[in-house]
Design a protein that fits this description.
Elements lengths: L2 E2 L4 E4 L3 E7 L9 E4 L3 E6 L2 E6 L10 E5 L2 E7 L16 H93 L5 H22 L30 H25 L9 H13 L3 H14 L4 H14 L2 H14 L8 H17 L3 H14 L4 H18 L1
Parallel strand pairs: 1-6
Antiparallel strand pairs: 2-3, 3-8, 4-5, 5-6, 7-8
Helix pairs in contact: 4-5, 4-6, 5-6, 6-7, 6-8, 7-8, 8-9, 9-10
Length: 405
C-alpha cells in the first residue's frame, strides 16, 4: 500500500496554481506523473501524491519541473478566481475512483493521439521525400530526352547535308558526261557510228570489270564459341597496380557489413520511438535538464548510432561530458560537431558558437589555455557583441599573461 504525501505546499494567484511536492530522495526516472484538468498524481514508490482539484485547470498549458528533490507544478486556471482550497473535500471513494479512471482514460487518449500524430507526420515526410525524388528523376529524364532529341536533329541535318552533296556530285558527273557526248557529236562521225563507239567502250569496261572480280569462297560452317569470364566484384577491368587497394576496400566493406548486421540485431529489440533520433534527442535534452547526465549521454549515443550526421547530438553529448568531467570526450564530440557544421552559414552560427565554447571550456579545464582561447575567439568572431564571451576570453588572456610573467 503506498504512503500518501501530505507535506506538500501550494500557493495561488487569480489565474495560476503553484504546487510543490517533495520527492523524498526519489530519482527522476522513478517519478510517474499523470495530470488532467481535474486530477493530478505523482507516484514515486513507495510514496503517492493525489490531488482531486477544486476547479478545472488548463492541462495543455500546465508545466512540471523536477530537480533538487522536489517536483514543482504550474497549473493555469480555466477561470480567473481565487480557490477556497486546493482539493475537493469529499470522502466518497466512488467519486474519487470515477475521477481517477476518467483521468487515466484521458491520459491514454492523449498519448495515443500524440503517437498517431507523430506517425502521420513521419508518413507525410516520407511522402514528401518520395514526391521530391520522383520529381527530380522526371526532370533528369526530361533533360536526357532533350539531349537525345538535339542529337537526333543534328544527325538528321548532317545526313541531309551529305545526301545533298552526293546529289550535287552525281549531277556534276552527269553534266560532265553529257558535255563529253556533245563534244564527240560535233565531229563528222555519223550518228549510228557514234552510238556504236560509246556502246563498245561500255562493253569493254564491263568485260574488264568481270575479269578483275575475284571468285568468292564458299560460306563457312556455323558453330558456337564458348567464352568464360573471371568473376569480379568491380565493374572495371582488373589492373595489377590497383590490386592492393581493391583488396583493402573489399576488406573494409566486409567489416562494415558485419558491423551493420550486428547493430541491426541490437536495434531490433528497441521500440519504434527509440529508433527515432529526434525522439532520442528530446529525451536526452530532458535528462540533461533534470540533471541525469549519464542518461542524456546514453540517449545521444543511441541517436548517433541511428544517424551520425546530426551535429546537435555530438554538441549536446559534449555538454554532458563536461558535466561528468570527461574532458577528452567533450573535446572529441565538439570537434565532430564543428566538422559537421561546415560550411559556415548564418543558419548554423548559434550551433557553431555553442560547440566552440564547449570545446574551449574542456581545453581550459585541462589547463590548455592557448587552445581554449582560440575556440573562444572563434566564437567571438561569430557573436562579437556577446558580453559574457568577452569576459571569459579576457579571463583566459589574463591567465596566459600571468603564467608567461
Amino acid at each position: 500500500m503506498p504512503l500518501h504525501v501530505t507535506d506538500y505546499r501550494w500557493s495561488q494567484t487569480d489565474s495560476t496554481i503553484h504546487l510543490s511536492v517533495p520527492l523524498k530522495g526519489a530519482t527522476v526516472r522513478k517519478v510517474d506523473i499523470v495530470s488532467t484538468e481535474e486530477y493530478l498524481k505523482v507516484h514515486f514508490p513507495p510514496f503517492l501524491f493525489e490531488a482531486f482539484l477544486f476547479e478545472p485547470v488548463d492541462d495543455d498549458r500546465s508545466t512540471a519541473r523536477i530537480g533538487n528533490g522536489v517536483a514543482v507544478f504550474t497549473l493555469p486556471k480555466k477561470t480567473c478566481k481565487v480557490w477556497e482550497r486546493l482539493m475537493i473535500t469529499t470522502d466518497d471513494k466512488e467519486t474519487k475512483k470515477e475521477i481517477r479512471e476518467r483521468a487515466l482514460l484521458k491520459q491514454q487518449q492523449k498519448l495515443s493521439a500524440e503517437s498517431k500524430q507523430k506517425g502521420e507526420k513521419q508518413q507525410a515526410e516520407k511522402k514528401y521525400a518520395l514526391e521530391t525524388m520522383m520529381k527530380l528523376e522526371k526532370e533528369e529524364r526530361d533533360i536526357i530526352e532533350k539531349m537525345k532529341e538535339a542529337e537526333r536533329e543534328k544527325t538528321t541535318a548532317e545526313l541531309a547535308a551529305w545526301q545533298l552533296r552526293q546529289k550535287q556530285k552525281a549531277e556534276e558527273a552527269q553534266q560532265k558526261q553529257n558535255h563529253q557526248i556533245q563534244q564527240a557529236g560535233s565531229t563528222d562521225i555519223p550518228g549510228n557510228r557514234l552510238t556504236d563507239i560509246v556502246k563498245n567502250k561500255q562493253d569493254h569496261r564491263n568485260s574488264k570489270t568481270k575479269k578483275i572480280q575475284p571468285q568468292l569462297p564458299p560460306p563457312r560452317r556455323s558453330g558456337n564459341i564458348a567464352v568464360t569470364f573471371t568473376p569480379r566484384v568491380f565493374p572495371t577491368a582488373l589492373r595489377e597496380s590497383l590490386v592492393p587497394e581493391e583488396e583493402e576496400w573489399l576488406k573494409k566493406q566486409a567489416e562494415a557489413r558485419r558491423a551493420v548486421s550486428a547493430e541491426v540485431e541490437e536495434l531490433q529489440d528497441l521500440s519504434e520511438e527509440e529508433r527515432n533520433h529526434d525522439w532520442l534527442k528530446q529525451k536526452g535534452d530532458k535528462c540533461f535538464t533534470n540533471g541525469d547526465y549519464v542518461g542524456a549521454v546514453n540517449a545521444y549515443s543511441l541517436g548517433i548510432r541511428l544517424n551520425g550526421k546530426i551535429p546537435a547530438l555530438y554538441s549536446n553529448r559534449a555538454a554532458c561530458h563536461l558535466k561528468l568531467r570527461n574532458l577528452h570526450k567533450a573535446i572529441e564530440d565538439s570537434s565532430k560537431a564543428l566538422d559537421l557544421l561546415t560550411p559556415a552559414v548564418p543558419a548554423n552560427s548559434a550551433a557553431r558558437v555553442r560547440a566552440s565554447i564547449r570545446r574551449g571550456s574542456a581545453f581550459c579545464r585541462l589547463q590548455l589555455y592557448a587552445e581554449g582561447l582560440q575556440d573562444y575567439e572563434a566564437a567571438l568572431k561569430i557573436d562579437p557583441h556577446n558580453e559574457a564571451l568577452q569576459e571569459d576570453a579576457q579571463i583566459i588572456r589574463d591567465i596566459l599573461q600571468g603564467s608567461a610573467g
